[in-house]
Design brief:
alpha/beta; Rossmann fold; six-stranded parallel β-sheet; globular
């Protein structure tokens, strides 16, 4: 996108030559720097040149870009969107019978190709932003490659920024017999001065450093706006606050620019602010997709968040990585378009030696099950031979095929099953379509609710955390939580939103994004319409547990079993923690299912719902086999430990001699409970686990201090093994409010608050009324957010705090003096964790050896 006047765009100088090339060649590759006019002017040039007689299709990689481009072209052509110019994005179509220029997301074109693989409705298709090499772009290019062999009248234009365009020439050569022509649009540029000014420190210090750099450049008085490349929303907001604290004067306008913003919010960067300098704080969305006129300064952090997927474990990551040399040059090119410019690189020049030439394509990094399902739907069974511009690893293709077969979407011969034939009707990912089909086939009374879950998961998370209101937001959203988990939380939230007399007020009270909720409503309407066309009645009001059952069928590979404390494990043996944002975080479900497994400093399960044990044999036979559960729907008996001192009918008092001391033991119908007075802990911590009999090692146990109970979830063998490492309460433990429980501290702006309570980690605090005593825990959300909590499970408190401290260390820059004390504490806890793990392993070996 560009806000430049079209009469000044460089591409207009080449209109006749572009028209000639497209008439004479089936494929033309057009490269040019961002802002030269490719996106908005090429469709108009081709229309004026009379190249297109049918529909001229233009694909965009993002919904917001498709809408914005359509509005801009319509404005320049003097027509209304929906007439000669229209857009089509998922769940929203503004095209009509008169539409000649159709701007759409690449996903829309791919969906159309199901019934029209030769793209017969179009005679010209322009793939814009091809250099981004998203999964959908590569899939689209592959389908066009096949179609060109069967259609002499089809013209394909590949529009790319100046990032390795020869790749596209080489790719299409085999489809048209020779390398297609490459036409380069030379933009008018001015000299730029490149300066290296490294900034070190944690997020807060980095933001301050960026703010200082911006204000120092601003003070020089040179004209032009500033474009600052940062890694994400958190860093952008933190830098914005730092600038506004340091420079409350009105001669600067600070404008954030990232993907979660609405179209109106993004368009603010194009607004005019007479007499003021714009400072645009952006992610890499501004690298190629958006051009802001008048930029003469670029500040570049040299990093970007890159998603990656491991098909073996099913775990995704989203971590900051060094950007490629091509991206560095692309960012630098944003300065010097209208006047001499300055580029400030906020990293050391020697880091260039460690960077790749280009960013690796999404097809090398993402889950391929969606692409493979669509290939098979097109009748392409030998997916390994499909002409992708870059061939994916065969292992990733095999993993995708196995995942689809496990969903019953395809059979062993790579044919669509009856279930798969229904799945491909829905424009959502395979697990979400599988979930809908399961409800339609087996649980029709909850079909609408399952569709709502799919709509929610197709949207960005609707939950908002305004600065300064994080605690209130968490409390409001906790009130929405459903006991069965996040799927039903989405359902009940949507029904309440839809039924409210004031949707805007409902969103404000519950800290929900109204735009996201409106998107979910559109998605629910379209998905429901597809289900109705398939002959299904879209109903609600059934058993909510059946919603979770449909979710479990769809995400069967992400069913998790509880291990210890709040920990879970996957079928692959990966240790997983429920993400704190989940509505069942802190619950005691024996089995759960997650929509995502995401790795930061540890693996977190996101969008989590409870699973009944007796479902396993049907929804995931592998889990039933591995974990030995789910036999004929009968639930194994659960042993409940009585935590309080209340006696039960049938109790038999007994004693146990241990380390020369006699302990009180109570034998109950289902278990035996041993009690260790706190004054004997030091003495009994020297007793070896091997001294216990097999029976005694399996006694339930606890440590008692007056009316308080500790370590209540363990058997005597493991408890005795870890006793030397347990932090026990002083005579007067601190009160529970000694730490701000639940308050979210973002490391990029609240680091001092995190540091303030570090010495409290693993100390014992007295409970609030009606609660149990526990150990202070530092937890993290994997995205730079930290909070303190109290956990009654010492082992879990140790595990969570150790992981969080490891994440906290990543916040500090190299050589930061503040990091020393954090590192010392992290090392201490890591050592203790290793000792505790080894002690528990010894206890397990001793138990098996008896």
């Amino acid at each position: 996108m560009s806000a430049d006047s079209p009469y000044r765009l460089p591409i207009l100088e080449h209109e006749d030559e572009i028209g000639r090339l497209v008439r004479e060649h089936k494929v033309v590759v057009i490269e040019g720097p961002t802002g030269c006019g490719k996106t908005t002017q090429l469709p108009q040039i081709l229309t004026r040149q009379g190249v297109s007689k049918k529909i001229l299709g233009v694909t965009q990689p993002r919904r917001i870009a498709a809408v914005s481009v359509a509005w801009r072209i319509a404005q320049e052509m003097g027509c209304t969107v929906g007439e000669e110019v229209g857009f089509a994005i998922r769940f929203d179509d503004s095209t009509g019978p008169k539409t000649h220029i159709k701007i759409m997301t690449d996903g829309i074109l791919l969906q159309e190709s199901r019934s029209d693989p030769l793209f017969s409705a179009y005679d010209v298709i322009m793939v814009d932003e091809a250099h981004e090499r998203s999964l959908n772009i590569d899939f689209t290019l592959g389908l066009l490659h096949r179609a060109l062999r069967n259609r002499d009248d089809l013209r394909v234009i590949v529009s790319s920024a100046t990032l390795n365009p020869r790749t596209f020439q080489d790719f299409f050569a085999s489809a048209v017999g020779e390398p297609p022509p490459l036409f380069s649009v030379e933009a008018r540029t001015f000299p730029i001065n490149i300066v290296y000014s490294p900034i070190r420190g944690d997020y807060e210090e980095f933001a301050d450093g960026v703010a200082n750099e911006i204000l120092e450049l601003h003070s020089r008085g040179n004209p032009g706006h500033m474009l600052v490349f940062l890694t994400g929303e958190g860093m952008i907001k933190n830098t914005e606050q730092s600038i506004l604290r340091k420079r409350p004067a009105m001669d600067l306008v600070v404008l954030p620019l990232f993907g979660r913003l609405t179209r109106d919010e993004q368009e603010q960067v194009f607004a005019e602010f007479p007499g003021k300098r714009k400072v645009i704080l952006a992610t890499n969305i501004a690298e190629t997709s958006i051009t802001v006129p008048g930029v003469t300064y670029v500040l570049d952090c040299g990093l970007a968040k890159v998603p990656r997927y491991d098909p073996t474990s099913g775990v995704s990551t989203l971590k900051e990585e060094l950007i490629s040399l091509a991206s560095i040059n692309q960012r630098a090119g944003r300065a010097g378009r209208t006047a001499p410019g300055t580029v400030v690189r906020l990293y050391e020049e020697r880091s260039l030696e460690k960077r790749a030439d280009f960013t690796d394509e999404e097809i090398q990094r993402h889950d391929l099950s969606d692409v493979v399902l669509r290939l098979i739907d097109h009748g392409i069974h030998e997916v390994e031979d499909f002409p992708f511009p870059t061939a994916p690893a065969r292992g990733k293709l095999r993993a995708a095929l196995q995942a689809l077969e496990a969903m019953d979407a395809i059979d062993s011969k790579r044919n669509l099953t009856a279930i798969g034939q229904q799945m491909v009707m829905f424009p959502v990912s395979p697990p979400l379509s599988r979930m809908i089909v399961e409800a339609a086939r087996k649980h029709p009374s909850v079909l609408e609710d399952v569709i709502i879950v799919a709509a929610f998961q197709s949207a960005r998370p609707p939950y908002l955390y305004p600065v300064g209101e994080e605690v209130q937001a968490r409390r409001a959203q906790e009130a929405l939580a459903h006991r069965l988990g996040d799927a039903m939380t989405a359902v009940t939230t949507f029904h309440a939103w839809r039924a409210s007399g004031n949707k805007k007020g409902y969103c404000e009270r519950n800290y929900l994004d109204p735009d996201t909720m409106a998107f979910v409503a559109k998605a629910r309407e379209q998905l429901g319409g597809i289900a109705e066309k398939m002959g299904c009645e879209v109903r609600t009001g059934g058993d909510p547990k059946q919603v979770n059952r449909c979710v479990a069928v769809a995400f069967a590979d992400k069913i998790l079993r509880r291990t210890k404390g709040r920990g879970y494990e996957s079928l692959m043996g990966t240790e997983v923690a429920i993400h704190p944002s989940s509505s069942i975080y802190g619950g005691n479900n024996a089995f759960v299912v997650a929509a995502e497994l995401v790795r930061s400093t540890r693996v977190y399960a996101r969008i989590v719902s409870s699973v009944q044990e007796d479902w396993l044999r049907e929804v995931c036979p592998e889990a039933a086999s591995v974990w030995g559960k789910g036999g004929k729907g009968k639930r194994a008996p659960v042993v409940k430990v009585q935590i309080d001192d209340d006696s039960e009918a049938g109790d038999v008092n007994d004693t146990l001699v241990l380390g020369g001391r006699t302990l009180q033991v109570v034998r109950r119908r289902k278990y035996t409970l041993a009690t260790i007075p706190i004054e004997l802990v030091a003495e009994l911590s020297k007793v070896s686990v091997e001294e216990l009999s097999a029976e005694a090692a399996n006694f339930r146990a606890r440590v008692v201090d007056g009316q308080e109970r500790y370590l209540t979830r363990m058997n005597l063998g493991p408890l005795l093994a870890i006793l030397p490492y347990v932090v026990l309460p002083p005579p007067q433990p601190a009160k529970a409010d000694a730490v701000p429980q639940g308050a979210l501290f973002e490391s990029d702006r609240n680091l001092h608050n995190i540091e303030r309570y570090l010495t409290k980690i693993l100390t014992v605090v007295r409970p609030r009324k009606g609660k149990k005593p526990g150990w202070v825990v530092l937890a993290d959300n994997g995205a730079g957010g930290f909070w303190y909590d109290v956990n009654t499970d010492f082992v879990e408190a140790l595990e969570v705090s150790t992981e969080a401290l490891s994440a906290l260390l990543e916040v500090y820059g190299e050589g930061d003096p503040k990091a020393a004390s954090v590192k010392m504490l992290a090392t201490h806890l890591s050592t203790k964790r290793s000792d505790v793990r080894a002690a528990l392993a010894r206890a397990m070996r001793a138990s098996k050896g008896r």
